[in-house]
C-alpha cells in the first residue's frame, strides 16, 4: 500500500469560477482515515480555502454527504483504504442540487419538500398534559421505525434521476417521512398529507429506479416508502371515487 | 456577497455513468421487445380472420431467422422483466408477519406454476384444435 493517496476535489469558487474544476491534494494514507478526516487534513494542512460541510463524524447528522467516485456517500462513513489500490478518489458536491461552493450543495429545495409533507405528529385536538403521554405498543412502533431512521442527509436525492430532471418532485426522503408519520398511530395528519402524495410532484413522479435505497446510509429503504405511497394514493383515489359517486366531497 | 450557485444540467447520457442506472434502463427497455411481440400477435390474429392461407403465410414468415432471433430476445426480455418485477414486489406488498423474502418466493413459485399451466394448456389444446394443419 502506498503511503499517500491522491484526492481530486471538484472546486467551485462562485467569485472566480464558471464551473467546477478538479484540484488534486495528496493526503497521507492510513487504514482508519475516513474521507471526512482527509478533508479536514486538507483544510488544516494544505488548503484552508476548501469548503465542505460536516458535524458529528458518526453518520448521525447527515451533513457530510458528497459524491465519492460518482456515488453519493457520507464522508464520515467512507474510508480511504477502500480506494488504496487505485491510489486516487474523486469528490464533488452532491448531484442534482445547485453547488454553492466546492463540496457544499444547496439543499434548500429538499428542505422545502420536507416541510410540504408535514413531518411531525399532527393532532386533531391537543390533549392536556394531565392526560399523560401518547402511548404506543411495540407493534405500532415497528410499523414506522425503519423509516424514522432517516437523517436527512440528501444522498437519496443525489441518487434520484427524477429529482435531477425536475426538482419539483418531492423526492425520496420527503415521501418517506410522509409515510413514516402516516404509519404512526399517534398521528392524525394522513388525510392532509394525501394531497401532496397525490399531486403531480408526489409519489407518481417516481419510476422505481431504486438507487435511493442502495445509497441510503441508514438502510431506510426510501424506494419501498415511495412505492407504498403509490399503494396508499391508489386506495385514496378509489375511496374518493366512491365518495363522489355517493354525492359526498372527496378528501 | 451575492450568491452564484452552479447548476449542472442533466445530460442525455446521465444513465451511462452508473451501473444502477444502466440496470434500471435495461429493465425499462424490456418493454420495447414485449410491445413489438404484442404487435406480432395482434397481426397474427388479424391474419387468422383473413382465412387459413393468410394465417399459414404469417406462421411461415415467422420462421425467418430474423424473427427467430427476435423471439429469443423477446423471451429473454420477458424473463428479465418478470424477474426484476418480482424482485421489487416486497417493496410494494408489505404484509405484517410475512417476510419480504417469503413474499418474493411466493411470487416466483406462483409465476412458475402459472407459466407451466398456460404452457400445458397450450400444448394440450394445440392438437385438439387441429394443430398446424
Helix/strand layout:
The complex is a heterodimer of chains A (251) and B (133).
Chain A (H helix, E strand, L loop, with lengths): L3 E8 L9 E8 L6 H12 L18 E4 L2 E4 L13 E5 L6 E3 L2 E2 L2 H9 L21 H8 L9 H4 L2 H5 L5 H12 L7 H9 L12 H5 L6 H24 L6
Parallel strand pairs in A: 1-5
Antiparallel strand pairs in A: 1-2, 3-4, 3-5, 6-7
Chain B lengths: L18 H11 L1 H19 L2 H10 L3 H28 L7 H29 L5
Helix pairs in contact in B: 2-3, 2-4, 4-5
Organism (chain A): Pseudohaliea rubra DSM 19751
Pfam family, one (chain A): Fer4_10
Catalytic activity (chain A): a quinone + succinate = fumarate + a quinol
In words, what does this structure look like?
The complex is a heterodimer of chains A (about 250) and B (about 130). Chain A is of the alpha+beta class and about 250 residues long. Chain A folds into two domains: about 5-105, Roll (Ubiquitin-like (UB roll)), CATH 3.10.20; about 110-245, Alpha-helical ferredoxin (Fumarate Reductase Iron-sulfur Protein, Chain B, domain 2), CATH 1.10.1060.10. In chain A, about 35% of the residues lie in helices and about 15% in strands. Chain A has nine helices and seven strands. Chain A has a five-stranded mixed beta sheet. Chain A has a two-stranded antiparallel ribbon with strand order 6-7. In chain A, a hairpin with a 2-residue loop joins strand 6 (about 100) and strand 7. In chain A, helix 2 (about 110-115) packs parallel to helix 6 and helix 6 (about 170-180) packs across helix 9 (about 220-245). The longest helix of chain A has 24 residues, at about 220-245. The model of chain A has no long low-confidence stretch (mean pLDDT about 95). Helices cover about 75% and strands about 0% of the residues of chain B. The relative contact order of chain B is 0.07. Chain B starts with 18 loop residues before the first helix and ends in a 5-residue tail after the last helix. Chain B is built from five helices and no strands. Chain B has two domains: about 20-75, 3 helical TM bundles of succinate and fumarate reductases (Up-down Bundle); about 95-130. Chain B has about 130 residues and is an all-alpha fold. The chains are: A alpha+beta (about 250), B mainly alpha (about 130). The interface of A and B includes residues 14, 99, 164, 207 and 211 of A.
